[in-house]
Amino acid sequence: MDYALILTVLTLITGLLWVLERFWIRRRFGETESGPAHWLASVASLFPILLLVLVFRSFLFEPFKIPSGSMIPTLQIGDFIVVNKFSYGLRLPVLNRKIISTGEPERGDVMVFRFPKDERVNYIKRVVGLPGDSITYRNKVLFINGEPVEQEPLGHWEGEGLNRNPPGRTPIERLEYLGEEPHSILIFPDQPDRGVRTWTVPEGHYFVLGDNRDQSLDSRAWNFVPEENLVGRATWIWMHWDCGRGCVVWERIGDKIQ
To answer: Which residues cross the membrane (predicted)?
Structure first.
């Protein structure tokens, strides 16, 4: 469901009703407490609220829910996150056209974007390749411009609740030193690689991977994210809901997304 389109349409409709009610209905019928004019005024009164929500959601921050485990352990199923919409430029709602440039994705960012194969769907992955980079994934190690990205083993990872390990399988957690801050990734040693490939990132595009490297549908499968598909940078977790762990998981609330 395209919430941006729905919100924009509702804002336009109530805005037109607000103008109609204020500059025509009131002058013709005066203040009324019943009838069509009163109903029109009630609907029109929603316009300032919808406008505020539209501006906040389109240009400042937007909430998202994590539906899959492709970013475990950084983000888990049941996480509700806040996405900074002005990190990569201010864009018109629905049209997604950049009107003000405020920054570009950096290597290591956790980024939300419209899936290139179906732009009605939002995806979240980690930026690993910038325009012009040569990206290789071999033996579960990321290579950027021919240099391996440092990894540090942390031991076995045990998931809980919605994020429990697949039956009979235990992934290995590694610390990857990609951007300014290291982040954790998961590797399944028993799962073979998809084959060694090298990609050269075109101008105006980005290469992204899930932190759950063997359980993620990402740029290794469908190539690059165009700049015009960017939505924003994931910043922090404001709620985690998993009734397999007592419903509200308090220790994840407020965590900054690295």
So the answer is: 6-25, 37-60
Q: Are residues 7 and 133 in the same domain?
A: no
- Same structural domain for residues 40 and 69? no
Whether 125 and 229 map to the same domain: the answer is yes
- Are the CB atoms for 55 and 28 separated by under 8 Å? no
Q: Strand pairing partners for 158?
A: none
Helices (H), the chain: 3-20, 26-29, 35-44, 47-55, 219-222
Confidence of residue 47 (pLDDT cuts 50, 70, 90): confident
Enumerate residues 6+ apart whose C-beta is below 8 A from 52: none
Least Cα distance to 25 among 39, 13, 12, 37 occurs for: 37
Residues 6+ apart with CB under 8 A from 68: 77
Residue 70 appears among annotated catalytic residues: yes
The average pLDDT across 35-45 equals: 70
Model pTM score: 0.85
Nearest CA among 241, 233, 242, 237 for reference residue 125: 233
* Average pLDDT of span 138-163: 96
**pLDDT given at position 31:** 57
**Full residue range of the structural domain in which residue 72 is found:** 62-252
Do 197 and 106 lie in a common domain?
yes
What CATH number corresponds to the domain at position 180?
2.10.109.10
Given the residues 58, 85, 87, 125, the one annotated as active site: 125
Q: Is the pLDDT of residue 127 over 90?
A: yes
Answer whether residue 1 shows pLDDT above 80. no
Residues 93 and 208 in one domain: yes
Of 58, 70, 87, 216, which residue is the catalytic one?
Answer: 70
- Domain count for the chain, please give it: 2
Same domain, 15 and 126: no
